[in-house]
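Session log. Operator J.P. requested a structure for one protein chain; no other inputs attached. Running the standard single-chain path with token output.
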Amino acid sequence: MFGIGMPELIIILVIILIIFGAGKIPEIGSGIGKGIKNFKKATSEPEKQEKIEKKEQMENKNDV
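Structure written below.
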């Protein structure tokens, strides 16, 4: 995994804990989770929009 072993990960987590404190860690995790959720939503919306536009075009062709 990118050449990072368990000891390195533990050191990184300890440094993060020292910098942000135990109280901020859940807030940071929540913010990252919301960011990922919004990113996934934003990347899937164009596909949904294209499907809606194609459906409207087909309906308009049938009406003419």
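Operator note: DSSP finds two helices and no strands in the chain.
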